[in-house]
Amino acid sequence: MTNKDQLLYETVAKEIESQIQMGDLRVGEKIASVREQSKLFNVSINTVLQAYVLLESRGVIESRPQSGFYVSKIVTTEEVRPEADVQTKPAPILIPDLVSDLFEAAANDKYVLLGAACLSPELHPNEAVARITRSILRTHSDVNAKYEFTPGHLPLRQQIAKRLLRTGHKVSASEVTITNGALDSLHLALRAILKPGDTILIESPNYFGILQSIASLGFKVIEIPANARTGVDPDDVKRILSKYKIGAAVLMPNFNNPLGSVIPDVNKRELVKIFSKFGVPVIEDDIYGDLAFSGIRPKLLRAFDEEGIVISCSSFSKTISPGSRTGWALPGKFEKEFRRLQLSSTVGSNRLQQYVIAEFMATGAFERYLRKIRPVLQEQLHRVSQSVLKHFPEETRFTQPQGGFMLWLELPKKFDSLELYKSAAAKKISIAPGVIFSANGNYRNYLRLNCGRLWRPEIDAAIKTLGTLAKQQL
Ligand SMILES: Cc1ncc(COP(=O)(O)O)c(C=O)c1O
Fold it and tell me: Where in the chain do CATH 1.10.10.10 domains reside?
């Protein structure tokens, strides 16, 4: 293949991509056949074929057997890779104190909320939850007149175990502890496992709430880069465990926030084997595990754990309701300490909320809700991706998550997302700048967009404003 050919097929690919961006070709639409396209562009059939292969490899189009090429559901540029120069020496966490701003914006209706990881309130099953709450209050008016001590309301623990069993996890209700949300589970897990001064292995980038929780307890971290599709590499983990004394690892194997990566089952199995060999417990955050667009729930890391070294943490904040502050943990062999710590801090979680969620799950409403919300989130992610493709600088790359509702963007090195964060806030648009996802100030040229808001023209306009500000900065 000559250089000239290479340039030609890239030009054709770019032209087709821009037709998609401009809306001339829509998602799911069939694109011209190779023969037609070669006439339209006045190039050889081979050149068009190469352009199609390139577009397919980027996920822009997809081929359907005996039918032709179609505009793909997810349009994207290249996969985003985290920088390689993440920190591989134990160090304290240094992140800018922006997180409270992010939550303040989340509570302010005047903002376009592309920052904090929140769904639009109307995307939660509010009516059904309100109906169940009223009914419980009618039949159990004294529900909050008693403590619900750790490990929590048995019917809720049974429902959680039942769901996990259905998705191939061997869990009994007695292993489940109800908490005040996923962050509470994570915080208790850290305290149950680690001693002051310990070092934790974390993936990078990482959810800022976990970083803050770790910082508040004074632990050090080693960050290892995660791949945007497949998460952390078992070989990287092995290398770090061989070199440093690690007290625990914290991972987000399913739909990592912000990357959206899912660790494949073979790597999950391998990771558990490695951690077990080195005697290192793992805390897994699975808050987005139920939001797989395919409807097939990826397995917990715990599914591969025979020794109880994995503590799984999750909550209903991204599905039923963030305000209920109800989560859960499977503390494995740390159960006794975990529950002891809960008794010495929050005692347990809100009793009424536990009754409501148990009932919501028992009636099958949770499954129905998940079936309804997954395609909605997939569509929102797609719309935000399309809008970024249209409005952001051409060099912008972003992820293609297959679940959850976060989009992670990479811009050229000289771009500063903290600057964008400030100029966007002045226009009442909130974003999550990349630096808050790193323990030591990496990812300045990255940002995370929350795609949990119901799509409306204001979101497209806000992304256009962000894109314009980014272009001005560059
Ligand atoms: C990855 C991750 N873990 C934990 C949490 C905290 O969840 P909760 O509100 O249940 O404490 C969040 C919230 O955004 C999150 O994104």
Answer: 3-71
